[in-house]
Structures are given as structure tokens and as C-alpha cells.
Amino acid sequence: MKKIEAIIRKTKFEEVRKTLHEADIEFLSWWEVKGQGTAKQGLFFRGIAYDVNTIARVYISFVVRDVNVEKSVNAILKSAYTGESGDGRIFISSVEQSVRIRTGDRGDESLYNKA
Q: How far apart are CA 85 and CA 98, in angstroms?
């Protein structure tokens, strides 16, 4: 099992969610977050300086069976891509164990997505 975490543009979230659903990834969690990249810029409006270095992002997290990793990553790559700096990142890590609380199912059987 693998945990996939992605940080994407807030404007691309609905498209990413739809594409993941089409790839049979139906269970995921997300949070609206702010981040800061390497680009440094400022904005002056009517004599007031505004910090525009923090960028609204969405952090997505879900766990899949090993056979679903590539299609999940490809779905995110396809739908989150703009070609501009700041498209985001995808992180993949191993999950040792998973347990569904309601049934006590463990391992792959505890996950929602089909093999």
C-alpha cells in the first residue's frame, strides 16, 4: 500500500478530484493550505505593501493499493498541470498497515479503491 500526498493549485482541485474519481480513486481527504515557494515578489497598492508570497493551495492525501499508484499519479499529473511554476508536488510513501475501524478489515481489504 502507498500513501499519495499532493500539493496542487487551488484552482485545479475540482479537475484533479474529478480525474481521480474517473481513475476509481473515490476516497480522499483534502485541506486548504497556504505555502511559499522560491519566487519572491511584493505588491504595492495605494501605498500599502502586500505580501503575495503565500499561495493558496490544496493538500490531498489518500492511500491506495500498489497496483493503483501509477494511475493515481498520472491522474494528478494530467489534471493539475499548467506548465507554469507552482504546479505543485506529489509525494509517495509506503504504508505498513491499514485497518478499517467498522469491520476490522486489515491491509488491502481495508481500502475502498478496487484492485
A: 35
Q: Indicate whether this model's pTM tops 0.85.
A: no
List pLDDT tens digits, range 15-60: 999 999 999 998 999 999 987 766 666 666 677 766 666 778 999 9
Q: Which amino acid is located at 72 in the chain?
A: S
- HSE-up of 11 (CA within 13 Å, CB side)? 5
Assign domain 2-110 to a CATH class: alpha beta
Order of all β-strands in the sheet with 88-94: 29-36, 54-64, 2-9, 88-94
Instruction: With beta carbons less than 8 A apart as the criterion, state whether 110 and 104 touch.
Output: no
Beta bridge partners of 51: 42
51-100: per-residue pLDDT in tens?
Answer: 666 778 999 999 999 999 999 999 999 999 999 888 999 999 999 999 99
